[in-house]
Specification:
Layout: E1 3-8, H1 12-22, E2 27-33, H2 40-53, E3 61-63, H3 78-81, H4 102-112, E4 118-121, H5 126-134, H6 138-141, E5 144-148, H7 164-167, H8 170-178, E6 183-186, H9 188-191, E7 195-197, H10 198-205, H11 210-230, E8 234-236, H12 238-247, E9 252-254, E10 257-258, E11 260-262, E12 273-275, E13 292-294, E14 297-298, H13 303-311
Parallel strand pairs: 1-2, 1-4, 2-3, 4-5, 5-6, 6-13
Antiparallel strand pairs: 7-8, 9-14, 10-13, 11-12
Helix pairs in contact: 1-2, 1-11, 1-12, 4-5, 5-8, 10-11
The protein binds beta-D-ribofuranose and calcium ion (CA).
Calcium ion binds next to helix 1.
Length: 314
């Protein structure tokens, strides 16, 4: 399968994304963690525990950036992802992280799979930015980067302007947006439109799959938070949708390739993704400076696909 490096701040929707990814037909050759939903160390703990549950204990996991490029990490979001990042459920303990940090793991994998390695990043983009700083060749070795992050045409969630993965570390995100690699942005524009609700949660918790049960239990807390946004118990599938777009399991039906940048100023727009979506509706002219594919519409509801896949896990 295609070699993939996955970068995450595990996280409830990161957990779903991870399980979806390891059960797809790509080859997950390494995982790095970053502070975001939870600190990078606990994110690695959660990732390793989930990999053990999915019977994939051999995928290397490296702890990555604990702080952002220009700011400290201010702590997790217990009201969204729990005090431990995974909705305060207990997971059986998995293996240990590898030596070296996530940026070094990414760089070494890029040389092991030159021109082939794909990156899927669903947390703050700090590890990717550090890797770009450490190795000037990196971008040219990577086949494609797919991120969950940003908001091209809708409000942010961390602030009025910023989606969380971009807003936590706008300088890192800007480096990722400007590096000469093909980039696909799966932002709030589409992820908020793909949800699962109570019936799906019940199917997960009442299944025989330990992985599905774990996700079903985590969703309890995640649903509490989403009541504020949607007025009902459900959850947006941010990170899993980005994985599915990257693997081809979800198909984008509107995804113009446009110039895009990240606002790194200190005002209210800090962390905004500025995507140049000017053009006739559904008919975006080709531009020489365009290299960011902005996913604006996905063919069909993705929730059912995700549930089927989670239920098929160990
Ligand atoms: C993103 O922020 C995190 O809380 C989620 O895991 C997702 O990656 C959504 O804005
Ligand atoms: Ca995430």
């Amino acid at each position: 399968g295609r070699p993939v490096y996955f970068d995450c701040d595990t996280g409830i929707d990161d957990s779903m994304a991870l399980l979806l990814l390891v059960s797809s037909d790509v080859d997950v050759v390494g995982i790095g963690t970053v502070s975001g939903n939870i600190d990078a160390d606990q994110a690695a703990r959660n990732t390793l525990d989930l990999l053990a549950l999915a019977q994939q204990p051999d995928i290397p996991v490296a702890i990555g950036a604990r702080a952002f490029l220009t700011t400290q990490y201010a702590g997790g979001v217990p009201h969204i992802h729990g005090r431990n990042g995974v909705g305060d459920i207990d997971l059986p303990r998995g293996g240990e992280p590898v030596e070296g940090d996530a940026a070094d793991l990414l760089i070494s994998l890029a040389y092991e799979y030159p021109g082939e390695l794909e990156i899927i990043a669903v947390g703050p983009m700090t590890n990717l930015a550090i890797a770009l700083q450490r190795d000037a060749e990196l971008a040219s070795l990577i086949r494609r980067v797919t991120i969950m992050g940003g908001a091209a045409m809708v409000p942010g969630n961390l602030s009025a302007a910023a989606e969380a993965n971009i807003g936590h570390d706008p300088e890192a995100a800007q480096a990722v947006f400007h590096a000469p690699w093909p980039l696909t942005m799966v932002g709030l524009d589409v992820t908020l439109g793909h949800t699962i609700a109570l019936e799906e949660q019940w199917r997960l918790t009442s299944s025989d799959s330990l992985c599905a049960q774990a996700i079903g239990r985590m969703l309890e807390l995640y649903f509490d938070f989403h009541v504020e946004i949607f007025g009902e118990r459900c959850a947006a599938l941010h990170d899993p949708l980005a994985v599915a777009i990257a693997t081809g399991e979800a198909i984008a039906t509107l995804a113009p390739v446009v110039p895009a940048t990240v606002d790194t100023t200190d005002g209210p727009d800090r962390g905004r993704t500025v995507c140049d979506l000017r053009g006739r509706f559904r008919d975006y002219p080709e531009r020489p400076d365009a290299h960011c594919t902005v996913v604006l519409e996905v063919a069909k509801p993705f929730g059912p696909t995700l549930i089927t896949r989670l239920l098929a896990l160990p």
